[in-house]
Structure formats: structure tokens, C-alpha cells
Amino acid sequence: xxxxxxxxxxxxxxxxxxxxxxxARLCVLRSIEFSKCNDMRQALIDNHLYNRLECTLGTxxxxxxxxxxxxxxxxxxxxxxxxxxxxxxxxSILWELYSNDDVIVALxxxxxxxADLKKYPLNFDERDLRLAHSALxxxxxRFGKNTCEIQRSLDQRNSIIFxxxxxxxxxxxxxxxxxxxxxxxxxxxxYYVCNFETGPINAILSRVGDFARRGELISIxxxxxxxxxxxxxxxxxxxxxxxxxxxxxxxxxxxxxxxSAIRTEINGVTDSDMNAMLxxxxxxxx
Length: 286
Fold this sequence. Notes:
Blueprint: H1 2-14, E1 24-28, H2 31-46, E2 53-57, H3 60-68, E3 74-78, H4 82-86, E4 90-98, E5 104-109, H5 114-119, E6 122-123, H6 129-143, E7 150-152, E8 160-164, H7 170-173, E9 176-179, E10 185-186, E11 202-207, H8 211-228, E12 256-260, H9 271-278, E13 283-285
Parallel strand pairs: 1-2, 1-3, 6-8, 7-13
Antiparallel strand pairs: 3-11, 4-11, 4-12, 5-8, 5-9, 9-10
């Protein structure tokens, strides 16, 4: 009973005073994303929150076409894929924001030399785009140019490790120092100023045009984050950020805390910089 009362209070506090003229029609690229979108939609309906979200499935080209022909409103793309939508006239309306404490850091041995920094391979989970982007940023700094390729090692002993600051634990920092962007070493507590964070992975894209509708879409997605986000009223149904059916980063990066209508540049990395670093690069396993 207490849970239900708290849920009602939360939904009342978060919900809009007036309804939307049309639900946000989200076009997604994979079956698991379509399933997650529909789970959020059903959770909203079950709690009498109508006209918030509709889901459709397609390839990147199909979603772009649907948006341009007003058969869908928005799609979510990561940094590497966004240019495909930009070329067809779509524009970003919201970007992901992560916690100030949630930055990507580079760890190296405390006796690491500059020569080691120039030659050591990198250790990170290549499926994690935030880690991969930070590794590319590190390569650009240490080599003075975009390498497009990453020499990746599975051995952490003589490699540079990329990890989320929040995942640092006593056991994995013994004998380690943070590597900073000027290639000096600092204590692991200095992650605020010594990190390789590159900024948001995903953006929500829509067509250029109806500014009133754009404002409505921004309101809907901010509301969805308040319902399904880390502290959301409906997070027990499905989480906007977090594992879904055992998979990470379904639709949105699981580290998301907020949406922003302005892309926040972190460590001076712009969209253009990130696109140049990504190239068509490959991960090379040692």
C-alpha cells in the first residue's frame, strides 16, 4: 500500500498538467530496442499516462525516411552514426549527460615512463563506446594525430587501462596512477582534472521544422527520464538507463543522468573532433 501511495504521489508530481497533442514516435534500429520502447510505453499506459510514446522499428535509412516523411518523430544515434542522419537533414535536439563523478580515466603503472606511454597497448572493453572513445582520445594526444586504429591488449600488466572512475576499487589501483592529458601521472583521487572523458555518446535526432513540436518532444523525453531514470517512479517496470534483457546500453547509454538541449563539450572534444578520431577504425587484438 505504501509503495502504491508513493507511486501515485510521484506520478502526480512528475506528470504534465496538460496532455500532449501527439506521442513521441521513436524509431529504433534493433528488435531489443523495439521491445524496450514498447515496455516503457506499456508501463506508461498501465499507470494512466497516455499519449507519451509510440515505437517503430527500421534500419537507419528507414528511420531517417520515416522522420523526414512525418511517419516518426525521433531516433537515437551514437556519435559515429549521427553524420548519416545529418546528411539527410536531421538535427540533434537532445544529448545525454552523465554524472560529474562518472568520467573515464586512464590507469598506468606508477613507474610508467614517457617512452612506455608512447608504446604500451590499451586495455578496455571494446563494446563500451565511452571507453573506446576515450582510448581514441588518448591515442590522439600521445601520438599527436588521429590513429584510427587501436592496439588493444587483454593483458592488464603492461598496458594502459581505461575504466570508469566509479569502478575504481582498492584492488585495481594498487601501484597505479592516473595518466593525465599532458601525459603526466597523478593520484587516483585527481580524476576531476585528470581524465579522458569525451562527452555524450548518443543524441536524439529529429527533423528541422515545427519548433513547437520540437519543444514538445524535448518535454516528453525529459519526462520519460524522470519516470524511467535512476530515481524514476516507474524504474521497477523498465529502466531507461541500465541493463535490459541482460544487454548494456539499449537505446541510451546506461550511464545517462539527464538530457541536455545543448551539447556539452568535455576536455575540448567537439563532435568534429570525435568524428575525426573515429574514422573507420578497427580494434587490433594482441
